[in-house]
Design a protein that fits this description.
Layout (H helix, E strand, L loop, with lengths): L8 H27 L6 H5 L1 H19 L12 H24 L12 H28 L9 E6 L3 H12 L5 E7 L9 E2 L2 E5 L4 H8 L3 E4 L6 H13 L4 E4 L17 E2 L15 H8 L3 E5 L4 H11 L5 E6 L2 H14 L4 E6 L5 H11 L3 E4 L6 H6 L1 H21 L4 E7 L8 H16 L6 E7 L1 E2 L6 H10 L4 E3 L5 E2 L1 E2 L1 H14 L5 E4 L5 E2 H11 L10 E3 L19 E3 L5 E4 L6 H16 L3 H11 L6
Parallel strand pairs: 1-2, 1-5, 2-4, 5-6, 8-9, 8-11, 9-10, 11-12, 12-13, 13-18, 14-17, 15-20
Antiparallel strand pairs: 3-4, 6-7, 16-19, 18-22, 21-22
């Protein structure tokens, strides 16, 4: 019976729309009432007053709607909504004034008092602003908050936009477990400043002293644009002062819209401490590349594919096609995107990229304009044992999807490659280099532009070292490290995916882009830091043991061969590799031979053929 009273987006819009209509009537009537000191002449009721109300409704309601004044959180209304309301009312009354000027000679509007416009403008601003801020004021004044004893004394590191938003979110939430005691910030001009009544107490180096003086129990690091060295220093100083609970605002790569609240806070993670500088994007270039286009992501259930799906969705494609063999993974990422992006059209596709007929059917049906090809077998050790599967998936599957992209006129095909394709010592690396070569040759055929993007290890991807170390630490150790000198390039999954999108946007076709992976990190140092993050001491609480490299593994991965070199691009984190021309006939013959060897599961033949035409491949 009372379903229409349930809190939904539609009921919220209906409530504020009704309120605005009422306040427009009230504002115009009161403007006349005040102008004539309570004695409105009877002739105004017959023409000017109803005419004024009608025109005000005609101009205000559509402008309010398109200014998104019906699409905000009532509990968290802020200055941005107040600015939007000011702009909307001002524009409405400018148009209203112009209309009244044009209609001044009409009998209905003759003798219209111009002061009515000014009075009704301010009244409407007060009424519409008041109803929008009413709940916020009520919550601030009358809701029962947790007592100070129930909340943990919290210090916020960083008093910029992110820190201010976090504090505002804490203050507006009656259930917040945080009791803000102050800020620390290295900006000298902010020292001693009050933000929402909370003081900037000092600089980051003063953390141990401030923690002790204020009896701080928890730290929030609100530095999404800062380098990891600053974050690492804040964590180290907090640890020295005995703080075990450190939370962090996600990086800008994870919060593209730039807005944060306490819901976004998470525990400090290893990727926050690894020396990666924040990624800078040309958001407009990515938006023009993706917005209102049909985008296909293969391998969408995997670590890279699923994150690509999240990041692509933020740039408003017309349809996003999620393709993978893993039906559970596809279901999970589809459901996640439906919640986060309710207006986005999502198509979940279960298919094997090696199934040429099925892939052609899907391309024919959906006609994607942008293809991110992330589907691949990536585990070096397993692919050494099953090289035929590596060839079928990483080479034949790539060729099938690339041919469909060409046949059905996709605008761009972006192939996700790896640093293991450089001087490969593994079958997996060699097959990914062949994928790059396929893209190089296909780029010469038609209008579809084929682009490869090469990068190293991504943190926390499935099967990577981070989840393995977590499991080993959870079991009490030991943590197994291959060799004390083993090094790898690392990049966070969101950063990798954003740079892939940026490279795709800037690519003209035929390039192999190389992402700046920063400095290589010793796996041993990574293991020690993860043990510390878990609250233990390396080799004291959790032992570290050394094993030996497995077949196909290198001590150090390269991003380029010495012969390739790089060419700078407009993005400082993306470079273009100088590549030798691929002999198309030779590639075609070797691909046929590889297909035959893979069908026959002739492992030695596969490796032998790869050695023949993959540069620098050695086993």
């Amino acid at each position: 019976m009372f379903k229409f009273l349930k809190r939904t987006a539609k009921t919220r819009i209906l409530f504020f729309l009704t309120a605005d209509i009422f306040f427009i009537f009230l504002s115009v009537f009161l403007a006349f009432f005040l102008r004539f000191e309570g004695k409105i002449p009877s002739q105004y009721f017959e023409g000017i007053l109803p005419g004024m109300i009608f025109l005000t409704l005609i101009f205000c309601l559509p402008i309010f709607y398109f200014s998104r004044l019906y699409s905000f959180s009532w509990s968290y209304v802020s200055a941005s909504e107040l600015i939007s309301l000011t702009k909307a009312i001002t524009l409405s009354f400018l148009l209203l004034g112009v209309s009244l000027f044009i209609l001044r000679d009409q009998s209905i509007f003759q003798g219209f008092p111009r002061s009515i416009l000014i009075i009704s403008y301010f009244l409407l601003f007060i009424f519409c602003g008041g109803i929008r801020f009413a709940k916020r004021v009520y919550l601030e004044l009358f809701t029962n908050r947790k007592s100070e004893k129930e909340r943990r004394k919290t210090l916020i590191v960083g008093s910029g936009d992110a820190g201010e938003q976090i504090l505002r979110s804490i203050l507006s939430s009656k259930y917040s477990p945080y009791l803000p005691m102050g800020f620390v910030d290295d900006n000298s001009t902010k020292q001693g400043v009050l933000i929402h009544g909370i003081k900037v107490l000092g600089k980051i180096e003063a953390l141990p002293v401030i923690i002790q003086e204020k009896q701080i129990e928890q730290i929030i690091i609100a530095l999404p644009s800062a380098g990891s060295q600053i974050i690492k220093r804040a964590v180290e100083l907090s640890r020295k002062a005995g703080i075990r609970s450190v939370k962090v605002v996600p990086s800008m790569a994870e919060i593209i819209n730039g807005e944060v609240s306490i819901r976004d806070l998470r525990k400090i993670q290893i990727n926050d401490l690894l020396g990666r500088e924040p990624v800078k994007l040309d958001a407009k270039a990515i938006e023009s590349f993706i917005k209102n286009k049909i985008v296909l992501i293969t391998g969408a259930a995997g670590s890279i594919g699923s994150e690509l799906s999240r990041q692509v969705a933020k740039f408003k494609p017309s349809v996003i096609l999620l393709l993978d063999q893993d039906e559970t993974g596809i279901f999970n990422i589809s459901e996640e995107l439906k919640v986060k992006f309710p207006y986005l059209k999502i198509q979940s596709l279960i298919a094997d990229i090696r199934d040429e007929e099925k892939i052609n059917q899907l391309f024919n049906k959906f006609r994607p304009k942008v293809v991110f090809h992330a589907a691949a077998y990536k585990h070096v050790y397993l692919m050494e044992k099953e090289p035929d599967e590596s060839v079928k998936n990483n080479i034949i599957g790539t060729e099938v999807v690339a041919e469909s992209s060409l046949k059905f006129a996709a605008e761009k095909f972006i192939f996700i490659s790896t640093d293991k394709a450089v001087k490969p010592t593994s079958v997996m690396g060699a097959t990914k280099r062949v994928g790059e070569m396929i893209c190089q040759t296909f780029n010469q055929k038609k209008s579809t532009r084929f682009i490869s993007v090469r990068f190293g290890n991504v943190l926390n991807s499935r099967g990577s070292v981070i989840p393995i170390f977590k499991k080993q630490i959870g079991n009490g150790g030991p943590v197994e490290v291959t060799h004390p000198e083993m090094k790898r390039y690392f990049m966070t999954i969101p950063e990798a995916c954003l740079l892939v999108m940026q490279a795709g946007a800037m690519g003209e076709g035929g390039e192999v882009f190389v992402l700046d992976m920063g400095k290589p990190i010793k796996i041993l140092d990574l293991a020690k830091e993860m043990i510390r993050l878990s609250g233990f001491e390396p080799d004291k609480d959790i032992p570290i043991v050394f094993t030996k490299p497995r077949p196909g593994e290198k001590f150090f991965e390269e991003i380029l061969t010495a012969e390739e070199g790089t060419i700078a691009t407009q993005n400082q984190k993306i470079f273009k590799a100088r590549l030798s021309i691929v002999d198309e006939n030779k590639l075609k013959n070797n691909l046929e031979a590889l297909k035959k060897a893979a069908e026959e599961s002739d492992f030695q033949k596969i490796k032998s053929i790869l050695k023949e035409f993959v540069p620098f491949y050695r086993t």
